[in-house]
Each structure stands twice: as structure tokens, then as C-alpha cells.
Hints:
Layout (H helix, E strand, L loop, with lengths): L1 H26 L4 H13 L13 H27 L2 H8 L2 H12 L6 H20 L9 H25 L5 H24 L8 H27 L2 H22 L9 H50 L1
Helix pairs in contact: 1-9, 1-10, 2-3, 2-8, 2-9, 3-7, 3-8, 4-6, 4-7, 4-10, 5-7, 5-10, 6-11, 7-10, 8-9, 10-11
Main location: membrane
InterPro entries: EmrE-like, SLC35_F1/F2/F6, SLC35F_Transporter
Membrane topology: Multi-pass membrane protein
Amino acid sequence: MQHILGQSIALLNALIGATLQSTQYFYGQSLPFTAATLFFVLSLLLFAFKSSRQKRSKRQQILFLSCGILDFSANCFLNLGFKFSNVASVLLLLSLSTPFAMVFTRILIGQKYDWQRILLAVLSVGFGIIYVLLDTETAGAKNIILGDIFAFVGCILYALGSVINQMGCEGVDSVCFLANMAPGAVIVGSVISGVSEYNLFQTIKWQTWLLILAYAVEMMIFYYITVLLLQKTAAVYFNLCLLVSNVYSFVIAIFLFKTTPKWYIIFPIIGLLACTILYFWYDDKVNKKFLKDNEILQQHSYQSLNIDVQEQVNEN
């Protein structure tokens, strides 16, 4: 089940990037801050559902607000990246969120990783970087260097945000999480988009507004599934799923933006897929062993308890 959720997130992430780049590529217009704000505005509507108003601790309330502000900031930087760079380059730079997520989970949660996981994660990122170096296709790119800088900042914020999201989504459903992370982000986003983009509203074509709305809806579905995935796995697994987005974006760019990638770019893609698949396989293997060991330990504890009780009965 977790692999289906992971691939759904990877595909959605690629579609989100393609949707944003389409506003610039086809219509020469972009409202990155407004697009990010609209997603959180739609999330506020989820307060209409009873499940969004379940009781929360003060710690969870703080985590929800932090999630919203961090995710809004990350989305803004990534949206700016999509505005100035191309979708494949931005998504590949986003792959660097995987090692950053490992660092943040170690600092904030105390999560430890064996050398096999670290090696596979590093190799996955390495193949991603090779892909970026080989990908000189700049279709739809306005200023690829500036866009990549924005994307790099966004990837760090995304890594930190995914760890905070993992901490905040414990014991809550997706609707509750989405609704409660929205207020802080809406306030910050409204101020930023109002100051920087309000004067552009009247010049934006209806097709661009339609794409921005599509982006907001895609983001809601993306985050809904993300909460389900984080409750079953962890932030590093989530970021590796984002890394697989590069494969989907590669295909989308060919058909949507008519790119003509060089034939040898397939090699880092194969390496990337192989390393991520091995990571998922190894992660499953370790988790199953952990569950099996726990089950054996519980059985031994239960048997020991029965023996102690029986001895006490015999003594009496």
C-alpha cells in the first residue's frame, strides 16, 4: 500500500511542476505566491468537515502552524524555480531534500540510519545530480541559474517541512492536518502575494487562472496522500518518492513541452530508479524483520509471564 501511495505522490509532484511551468511556457505569465496561497485558502474550506475540528494538543497546534508556514515558503521558492527554470532541473534539485531530510530527522527525531540506507540514498541523489549536469534542455526556462537557486532553497525547506509534517500528522487524519496547517500560511501568503503580485491580477489570462486553480487542487490531493504516507513510513521515504518524480517529469516534458533529450540521459535515470527501488526493498526487509523480532519478543514475554504465574499458583 505504501508503494502505491509513494508512486501517486511522485506522479502528482511531476504534474504539479508541469502545471506551474505551463503558465510560463504557454502564456508567459506566472503568479507563484498567489498559486501557493490559493492552495492553503482551499484547505481552509476543510474546516467545514467535523474531522478537521478534532481535539489537538498545544504541541500539535504549534506543529500545524509551523508546517503551514514552512510548506508555503518551500512552495514559493519551488514555484519561483519553475517560473525561471525548467521542470526537470527543478525536480532534480529537489532530490537533494533526501539527504537533508536524513539530517533533520536525526536532529529533531533522533532517527538513526544504517550504512546501507545512507549509501543507497546518496547514490540516488548522485544519479540525480548527474541527470542535472547532462540535462542542458532549457525549454520554457527564463533564467535557469536563478531558477535553480530558488529550487535549492526550496529543497532545504521542503526537507525540514517534511520532517515537521511527520511529527505533526501523528494521530490525525489528512483533512484535519490540511485544515489546521492552512491559517498561518494563508496570512503570510496573502501579505506576500498582495504586495508582489496584486498589480498583475488584471493582466492575467483566464487560462492562466485555470492552471493556477488546477495547481491548488493538485496540491490538496498531493498533501492528502502525503499525510497517509508519512503515517505509514517516514520523511526520508517521502523524499525518495519525490526523487522518482524526475522519471515522470522526463516523460511529461517530452510530450507536453516537446523537449528532445539526449539518448545517454537514460543512464542516470536507470541508476536513479535502481537505487530507489533497492532502498524501498531494503527498507521493507528491515521493517519486516523488526516487526518479526518484536512479535517473537512479545511471545517470549507472554510465555515467561505464564510460567511465573503458574509457579506462583503451584507455590500457593
